Amino acid sequence: MALRIGITGGIGSGKSTVARLFLALGVPVIDTDEIARQLVRPGQPALTRIRQAFGAGILAPSGELDRSAMRDIVFAAPEKRRELEQILHPLIRAEAAAWARSQREPYCLIVIPLLIEAGWLDDVDRILVVDAPLELQLRRATTRDRAAEADVRAIIDAQCAREARLAAADDVISNDGDLDRLRLQVERLHRRYLALASQRA
């Protein structure tokens, strides 16, 4: 099986940008947020379970999940967030594990925003943290999502502390510079992961 690298980092840290740079090097990448989006499409069993647990108000008129309504519910009540996670996380983990087993490249990347918080430590072989200063996270996330700073801060507060994330890391990419600097860090880690994967073979 391919060496499994779990990428994580706080909102606005640049996980997706880093993942795209690895993808450009031919590395297989899967994003657990994308798995989650597939699982809650209309007609999927997970969406039915979510509607049963949270009521029809979480559905848009189209029958799709109203992400804004769902986000409001889970951020207002931690127990509701845990209830949603109990529905989705086992399904996401199973999909990600099956995907990783199917890979034939030396290593693959699994983007897991809540890797530390959700306890995915045993689902990956190494943890790569994409790190950025708080003010930079806020600026990126508010611009990208057209969100209020208070809303982004609430998301950051709900995630694990930056220090805890860094303490769990096997590797760290500092995303506080330009794209060229980021690419150099990715290329350096790419060589390292290829070497590590070859040692396992």
Characterization of this structure:
It is a single chain. The protein is of the alpha/beta class. The chain has two domains: 1-28 and 103-201, Rossmann fold; 38-95, no CATH class. It is 57% helix and 12% strand. It contains nine helices and five strands. Strands 2-3-1-4-5 form a five-stranded parallel sheet, with helices on both faces. The protein is globular. The termini are close together.
Record keyword descriptors for this entry.
201 residues; alpha/beta; Rossmann fold; 5-stranded parallel β-sheet; 9 helices; 5 strands
Helix content: 55-70%
* Secondary-structure element pattern, one letter each: EHEHHHHEEHHHEH
Strand order of the largest sheet: 2-3-1-4-5
DSSP helix count?
Answer: 9
- Whole-number count of domains: 2
Average residue-wise pLDDT:
92
Estimated radius of gyration: 17 Å
The geometry reads as globular
The strand count comes to 5
Instruction: Compute the separation of the termini in Å.
Output: 9 Å
Binned strand content:
5-15%
Q: Which blocks of ≥5 consecutive residues have pLDDT under 50? A: none
CATH superfamily of the largest domain: P-loop containing nucleotide triphosphate hydrolases
Based on helices, strands and strand pairing, what is the structural class?
alpha/beta
The CATH topology annotation of the largest domain reads as Rossmann fold
Q: Which CATH C-level class of the largest domain is it?
A: Alpha Beta
Under the CATH scheme, which architecture of the largest domain would be assigned?
Answer: 3-Layer(aba) Sandwich
